[in-house]
Amino acid sequence: MALQSNESLQESEDQRRLSQVKAELARNITLREQELVAKAASLERLKFEEELTHQVNLVRLGSPSTTTSKIASPLLSPPIGPTNAMLKDAINQSPKSTVLIPVGKERDLPEPAMMVLRGLWARLGYQGNSFVDMQLEIAKELSRADFARFEREMLCNEVISLRNELDLLREDRNELIRRAESAQANLSQVLESEERTFKALVTEREIAKRAIERAEKGVQQVVVAKEKEAVRAEAMSEEIHRLEKERLAAVLYARTAEEQAALANITAKTAAAVAISAVQTSQPPTPRVGFAPTTPKSPRMPSPGLAGRTTTHSQKPSNNPSQNHHHSNLANTPRLATASSPNHHSTSAPRTPHLNSASQPNNNNTWTELDEAILQTKMRERRIEAEENRLAAEATKLAQERIKLRFDLNQLP
Question: Which UniProt keywords apply (predicted)?
Fold first, then answer.
């Protein structure tokens, strides 16, 4: 707006100056024309007065108006065609009281002129009488000379020169007007170019303003995204801490379960030893019965027939209270949910000592609840280990994302 107001003020100032120059030129030209017209009118009036005076003098002297002079005039009287109207106006405007100048009066030459003429006459070889005759001839010529004609011709020449000067002034005026028009056209072109430049600048300003607004919106979006990422990183960090606590709690629980399983194994071994010692002290030795050799099988994958024999053997009633107590201890042993590690599975399974009796089956080929508990414990340990690996991978990924976010923050201006 300030630029536009300055341009409008400058334009108004230029217009004012141009109008002042035009007015001054027109005023000067008008004044000069008036002066020239007045001067021409005065010259015409003087000319008319001189002619009138000359005619009056000729009438008084009684000489004809067409008196010819012996001295030829080098100047000719030009035709006064275009100035007839001006001459009539001058005649009409001429004052009634005119001053008459006598023309036929004798005129005496000044002394220096007389001396010059005498010297010239003497050089030419004339005597005094001849000089007197020459003086008389010169006096006659002076008495008959038409001085008004010379004055009229001089006035005509001056009028012609004034007309020429007036024409030159008119040409100068036309040239100045043409220059003023060209300057006005150039000024209008400059104003149009400035207006187009101003519009282009305003358009560029609007474009830059919109670009700045878009950049500010983008920065705000980046800031909001950073805040969201920070909140997300904080939530993931809290989740990592929580999972770490859960992992530590699971490890502590597994260790506690392992210790409890070891304690239960020791208790079961002690109970089995007590039961065996009680059986040996209470029952007489029985003859050993031979059995056919059997193929050893894995305790983790029992065969269906062996599992049935084990089940039928475990369902047989025992007459020995110590054996019943031993079976009750085995039945009441807690399941190891998350306990022992793979290094203790060989010691966690209670092994009952073999009796020197044919009624005791081979316990290496049976699948007990303790083996089931050990298998479940190992499976839980593997699941816990897989969960720990997953948490470690998530922690690594979160750390990488945090490093990337920090790098992006550093890259932003």
Answer: Coiled coil
- For residue 140, pLDDT beyond 70: yes
Q: Which residues contact 142 (CB under 8 A, 6 or more apart)?
A: 106, 107
- Determine the Cα–Cα distance for residues 310 and 297; give it in Å rounded to an integer: 14
**Spatial contact of 77 and 153, defined as CB atoms under 8 Å apart:** yes
- Output the furthest CA–CA distance in the chain (Å, rounded): 220
The CA distances from residue 239 to 141, 399, 400, 402, in Å, are 144, 13, 16, 15
**Residues 329-367 as b or e (16 or more Cβ within 10 Å = b):** bbeebeebebbbeeebbeebbbebeeeeeeeebeeebbb
Task: List Cα–Cα distances, 102 to 13, 51, 125, 144, in angstroms.
Answer: 64, 12, 36, 12
The pair of structure tokens assigned to 10 is 């400058």
Burial class (CB in 10 A: 0-12, 13-18, 19+), 51: middle
Q: What percent of the chain has pLDDT over 90?
A: 9
Q: Which residues contact 48 (CB under 8 A, 6 or more apart)?
A: 87, 90, 91, 94
Residue found under tokens 């990488």: 400
**pTM of structure:** 0.28
Every domain of the chain and the residues it spans: 2-99+146-203, 105-145
For tokens 């945090």, what's the residue?
402
Rg (CA), the chain: 75
Which of 56, 200, 149, 331 has the alpha carbon at shortest distance from 208? 200
Q: Are 398 and 236 spatial neighbours (Cβ–Cβ below 8 Å)?
A: yes
Where is pLDDT greater, at 83 or 395? 395
Closest CA to 405 of 222, 134, 220, 277: 222
C-alpha to C-alpha distance for 58 and 144, rounded to whole angstroms: 10
Contact 348, 261 (CB under 8 A): yes
* 385-396 tens-digit pLDDT: 888 888 888 888
- Give the residue from 218, 379, 365, 350 showing the smallest Cα distance to 275: 350
